């Protein structure tokens, strides 16, 4: 396990994606609304799109006709290429189907050391 100081805590915002590099590998950081910082591999597990160009959103669902509920605000990363969505909590796809079921984001452990974000690889 190696620890890499990658940026300042203030550089990681809720609803935003911050790309850093560890060696030549891109890693994307985002802060959840709860304050936790998540680090995921910078390439989409589907076909390798650069996730720094994606967006952070939530989920929509419905239990009754004519009613749409919005949830998980700030916890979903949508790939900019084909639109697959993954949870920033666990890296799993949020709308599993036959194509996305086996895909998941590569998750990295994150530590906060003073005002530095440290990614463990
Ligand atoms: S490359 Fe990300 S959904 Fe296809």
UniProtKB/TrEMBL annotation:
InterPro entries tied to this protein: Rieske_2Fe-2S, Rieske_2Fe-2S_sf
UniProt keyword Mitochondrion, yes or no: no
GO molecular function, one term: metal ion binding
Ranges for domain Rieske: 4-119
Keywords in alphabetical order: 2Fe-2S, Iron, Iron-sulfur, Metal-binding
Pfam families (UniProt xref): Rieske
Superkingdom to which the source organism belongs: Bacteria
Protein name (Swiss-Prot/TrEMBL): 2Fe-2S ferredoxin
Organism per entry: Hansschlegelia zhihuaiae
